[in-house]
């Protein structure tokens, strides 16, 4: 059973769970009075059971989840039971599909009509072993009138819509859910990670102008392209920051933890920005001399791999057909976005304007968390975790709005207003049910 602990402002507390390749992050928060997100607690644990965005070891992943949940629960004083979970990995695919709904009358189109169209999309036959994760409506066509973004309230009989459908491997989805179950948690929603990150670092103006979100994580690089406020293309590239660390480890003949430190502290995506005579001294193994590594050579190693990742991203941009419609340019986020000179390299390869996306726009001033933790949350590293929180809050608010809209029973005096006398009982009854309303016993029994 879902446990809700609400704030003074009656805003539900929501939890996001980012199961990444390098870290597992739990964020606890709620909507603040200023329509921003107030973070109540954060938990972080090293992710040792995930490879390239996919669960590779159930028990190790469960242990990391429980560790992160315990830390976030202790900080926020919230008993965490329900989580919004991110999903990524090379298995993620996206397709475009068109749906058609012929309505029985030309009354106003309601949310229920759109939900019926979306439900139809979930019935699509996919290749064996695949499952639909998201069905995202794009433009609608009402009675042959195209290009409608929000048809609710319009009149029309024939409703058509283009959908962006995202699917993933059943086994990968089941493994995530098994980890959540084993950690004594419940999945509220499964959310594609680039969609979550986009909520944290992009605003409506970015999405309307046309923008590419590139989330460079440890195991994968996630791409989402938006235009005219609508998601147009998604992709997951199976390369990320960890492969750069492996290259440094091999190229410089150092330990993995040393390679990671070299990347974070001295790494650069452009070798020409570094001086020839800059040298780093790395401690040698027991009984061996320290090793000297040129900063410029380190940058050459990093640049070669980052160029490959950016080329993959650029291929996705070109194949989407939106290369010349990206007024908002490219926004890079995730842990990999912290690499020095990466913005310049992206602009050099793609010829498209680029900036780093920070999730701090949506964060309310915080008096609950220690200042160092709150400042750390503003890093691109937490874009997905905060985005999952925002998506979870949006879902809660939409659900509350739907419940409020359809929870008022219809009384006897409403019958004439609903057209009972003119339509007859069965036509009236059908219309009431179709609108998602409940009928109280007095009304139903009185007229039956």
UniProtKB/TrEMBL annotation:
Sorted UniProt keywords: Cell cycle, Cell division, Cell membrane, Membrane
A Gene Ontology term for the protein's cellular component: cytoplasmic side of plasma membrane
Domain of life: Bacteria
The keyword Cell cycle appears for this protein: yes
Domain SHS2 intervals: 14-201
GO biological process: FtsZ-dependent cytokinesis
Record's bilayer topology term: Peripheral membrane protein
Compartments where located: Cell membrane
Predominant cellular place of this UniProt entry's protein: membrane
Nucleus among keywords: no
Sections of the chain in a coiled coil: none
InterPro entries recorded: ATPase_NBD, Cell_div_FtsA, FtsA/MreB, SHS2_FtsA
HAMAP family: FtsA
Family of this protein: Belongs to the FtsA/MreB family.
Purpose of the protein: Cell division protein that is involved in the assembly of the Z ring. May serve as a membrane anchor for the Z ring.
Subunit structure: Self-interacts. Interacts with FtsZ.
Record protein name field: Cell division protein FtsA
Species this protein is from: Parapedobacter koreensis
Taxonomic classification: Bacteria, Pseudomonadati, Bacteroidota, Sphingobacteriia, Sphingobacteriales
Gene name of the encoded protein: ftsA
